[in-house]
Amino acid sequence: MKKFRKLVIVAIIALLILLAGLMVLDNGNGITNENKGNASIAVTGDVMFARNMVGVLSSGQDPFVNVANVTSKTDLLLVNFENAATTSGNAVKGDVPLKTSPDFVHLVRNNPNTVASLANNHAFDYGIDGMHDTVENLEKNNVTPIGAGDNVDEAHRSVTKEINGRNITIFNFMDSENFAEYSNEVMPVATSDSPGYSAYDSSVCEEIKEAHENSDFVIVFFHYGNEYSTSPNENQVKMSHEVIDAGADIVLGSHPHVPQGMEFYNGSMIFYSLGNFIFDQKNPDTHVAYFVEISLVSETVECTVYPIAIVDYLPQFMSPDNGKSLLESLNPSCDKLTIGDDGIGRISYNLTD
Question: How many CA atoms lie within 13 Å of 90's alpha carbon, on the beta-carbon side?
């Protein structure tokens, strides 16, 4: 009898343990986000340290100085690094080759956890050697490169960062159709046996599906769209929708140098173009932009949209009136966007399975 009672007690304890485990499981896919800590990610548009930026950076100025209260305080910073970081003098691109001194690369790391995207149209301006130098110099300064490599697997490889118990996975792709006029030597697409940038094609959706199954949050950072166009083109919409259908939780874009609008599609947000962030272009249209802070709170995604002005090549927060005016002018507009009296935009949505 005593043995029977012991067996019953053991069975009850095992059942309680099983039930406790099931309570924190999310449809068999792992612990729910309700049981994990909050996480925050800041994402910016184009960061360029070449040309006129040399004078600013040589002076010892922190290029993030006016916005560091956001960019340096989040758990992760993601930027588009729009130049090679090399001492090479062998430019392979005849028009507007951009490079910065390796001595300035440490200034990209405004956040202890910084990722720099290289799937863009300037990372290879100094050839494959220049790309290798860029990757090496970023890594030396504890910045994680993404979007380029010695073969397609390396170039497509996502970056996963664990933040407060959440796995955040980042993909970086460029729309190669935008640059058909350039030879593969000037702007090489990574292949199975040759170096280059991470070019988007629909086959990468399988990679995103897998990441969705094994991550808590999936970011796709695109380099796409038409320069100086204030609205997305067909490819931007198509690519963004495809990766969200595959499991991306948010999509952000760069390249047009001007801001484009937002869309809430199939349970996820798209920010088609953030515009510039640190850049020296003269066109006044390129002097307004925004960047996004993504906060993961329990099962909710909270996006804070900060309108910025590029003043003397550096970003600074807009006044409330100017910020509101910029956000209201964006195309496409998004019903989920609310604009506060401070001129800052806010969007909230639930994470989907």
Answer: 9
Nearest one of 165, 269, 158 to 210, comparing CA atoms: 158
- Cα distances (Å, whole numbers) of residue 156 to 142, 189, 201, 262: 20, 11, 11, 25
**In which band, very low, low, confident or very high, does the pLDDT at 153 lie, cut at 50, 70 and 90?**
very high
What share of residues in the chain are helix, strand, coil (percent, to 5)? 30, 30, 40
The Cα–Cα gap between 313 and 53 comes to 7
pTM for the predicted model, two decimal places:
0.91
Q: How far apart (Å, rounded) are the C-alpha atoms in residues 264 and 19?
A: 36
The residue ranges of every structural domain in the chain are 1-30, 39-350
Three-state secondary-structure class, residue 155: helix
Residues 197 and 148: their CA atoms lie apart, in Å, by 4
Domain 39-350: which topology?
Purple Acid Phosphatase; chain A, domain 2 (3.60.21)
Question: Would you say residue 21 has pLDDT above 90?
Answer: no
Separation of alpha carbons 218 and 12, rounded Å: 39
Angle between helices 234-246 and 205-214 (to 10 degrees): 40
**Sequence-distant (≥ 6) Cβ neighbours of residue 75 within 8 angstroms:** 39, 40, 41, 113, 163, 164
What pLDDT is recorded for position 9? 52
Q: What is the pLDDT, as a whole number, of residue 97?
A: 96
Tens of pLDDT, residues 217-238: 999 999 999 999 999 999 999 9
According to DSSP, the residues that pair with 183 across neighbouring strands are none
